[in-house]
Design brief:
Elements lengths: L3 E4 L2 H12 L10 E5 L6 H7 L5 E4 L2 E4 L2 E3 L4 E3 L4 E4 L7 E3 L5 E3 L2 E3 L10 E5 L7 E3 L2 E3 L3 E6 L5 E3 L2 E3 L13 E4 L5 E3 L2 E3 L3 E9 L2 E3 L2 E3 L3 E9 L2 E3 L2 E3 L3 E6 L5 E3 L2 E3 L4 E6 L5 E3 L2 E3 L4 E6 L5 E3 L2 E3 L3 E6 L6 E3 L2 E3 L3 E5 L4 E3 L8 E2 L22 H8 L10 H12 L7 E3 L22
Parallel strand pairs: 2-3, 3-6, 4-7, 5-8, 6-9, 7-10, 8-11, 9-12, 10-13, 11-14, 12-15, 13-16, 14-17, 15-18, 16-19, 17-20, 18-21, 19-22, 20-23, 21-24, 22-25, 23-26, 24-27, 25-28, 26-29, 27-30, 28-31, 29-32, 30-33, 31-34, 32-35, 33-36, 34-37, 35-38, 37-40, 39-41
Antiparallel strand pairs: 1-2
């Protein structure tokens, strides 16, 4: 049995293609709609006979992979449509421009990390590729954008190999040198990292959800990009941003991530606003050798440490944030004073027993989250045994009366009396706009 081909007029096809593909370019307006079923000839042969702009509709059932898409076609499935690999290499390779893959289940890639075996692999020739509304499950890497420009990964469910150890798994979505590409609205679980991007720029990761991975979002050498409206639940780290500059990180949630909510390592000149890290583990935010970052209007609560600074991080602005219920609000070992207020406005600290006698919403005296004894305990943990000794209590009293005894550290000269409101995160759940 051969597939049914239904010719369309040039105008009707062009309008339909523009409506569905959102402005992709085509080399031919005389496109066709091709209906296929598992009983037809091989899927690769059907794809090879299609013309630019053709729409290939797959009926229910299993289709054998691997397949390669060389030209701008739409490959669309529906309920119970699966493309199943043979356990080696990639299941689907997109090697031509303006390809759309929609509404299929892709499974059965190889397991070789050295060859980056993937459910869907997009080569540098795959500019403008769109992978959407699909289930990408039980592959080594879910979707790999390896060099295309302006590709889109949208509204997919991506589940990794649960039979492998975490360090043997691939990433849910992996990106390399793919400027302008976006990853939006996906549910990603059971991989190594949810999204891993390296050596790229101008990428946007928006509205994705991550569970049971190592890092929800992992940046390496990627600049001038955006992370917005994502949710990370119960992972090892929420947002790990490394060796990357010029990032905009806004309105993201990290809830229950075990080590860090936000981790900066050599990340510079980036903006963080409207983010919430709560019910976290070791650190809400860890800043390592990262400079000139701006944190405003974020909420960090329920962690072992609210923010830890180390390795010479300089000229970071931290203003208008809420630090609530952290066992240690700030950990900073250094002799310099770091002022965490700007233009008469600082941060909210849940353990700041302050008064506001003039009613301006600001504490009447400066807040210092750490003192000399904190630094001694950090450097010599066994000193905790002496914290209740009378001499230690006298030293604490002396420092409270004579601030000059402080060795340096963070000071908030204008602490807030109430935390900033982040409406989208109020209550127990995540509320998208």
């Amino acid at each position: 049995m051969f597939p049914v081909i239904r010719p369309k007029t040039a105008i009707r096809t062009a309008l339909s293609a523009l409506a569905v593909w959102g402005g992709a370019t085509f080399s031919s307006l005389h496109a066709s709609e091709i209906e296929a079923s598992p009983s037809d000839k091989g899927l690769q042969e059907i794809v090879d006979t299609a013309q630019d702009g053709d729409r290939i509709l797959l009926g229910p059932g299993d289709y054998s992979g691997p397949i390669i898409l060389h030209r701008p076609v739409m490959l669309e499935g529906g309920d119970d449509v699966r493309i199943v690999g043979n356990g080696t290499g990639n299941v689907i390779t997109i090697d031509g421009p303006d390809v759309m893959l929609r509404g299929v289940t892709v499974t059965g890639s190889g397991l070789d990390l050295s060859t980056q075996d993937s459910g869907v692999f997009v080569t540098p020739n795959g500019d403008g590729a769109v992978i959407e509304d699909s289930v990408i499950s039980d592959n080594l890497i879910g979707i790999y954008l390896s060099g295309p420009e302006n590709a889109t990964v949208r509204n997919n469910i991506i589940v990794g190999r649960q039979d492998l150890r975490v360090n043997e798994r691939g990433n849910g979505v992996q990106l390399w040198n793919t400027p302008g590409s976006v990853v939006v609205g996906n549910a990603i679980s059971q991989g190594r990292d949810g999204i891993f991007v390296t050596t790229s720029k101008q990428n946007r990761f928006i509205g994705n959800e991550f569970r049971n991975v190592r890092f929800a979002v992992h940046y390496m050498y990627t600049h001038d990009s955006e992370i917005r409206d994502n949710r990370s639940f119960d992972n090892t780290v929420g947002y790990a941003l490394m060796f990357s500059d010029g990032l905009k990180v806004t309105n993201n949630l990290s809830r229950g991530d075990r080590d860090h909510g936000i981790l900066l390592n050599y990340a510079n000149k980036s903006e963080f606003s409207g983010n919430v890290v709560d019910r976290g583990g070791e650190k809400c935010v860890f800043i390592y050798n990262s400079n000139k970052n701006d944190f405003r209007g974020n909420r960090f609560e329920g962690c072992g440490i609210g923010v830890q600074f180390t390795a010479g991080s300089e000229r970071n602005v931290i203003v208008g944030n809420a630090f609530s219920g952290n066992r240690t609000q700030v950990k900073y070992v250094g002799t310099r004073w770091l002022e965490w207020s700007e233009n008469g406005r600082g941060n909210y600290w849940s353990d700041n027993a302050a008064f506001d006698l003039d009613g301006d919403g600001l504490g009447d005296r400066a807040y210092r989250p750490n003192d000399m004894l904190d630094q001694v305990v950090w450097a010599h943990p066994s000193a905790k045994l002496l914290l209740n000794a009378p001499a230690i209590q006298i030293l604490k009293w002396a420092q409270s009366r004579f601030p000059a005894l402080h060795p340096g550290g963070v000071i908030d000269s204008h602490p807030l009396m109430a935390p900033p409101v982040i409406a989208r995160f109020e209550g127990d759940g995540y509320h998208a706009e």
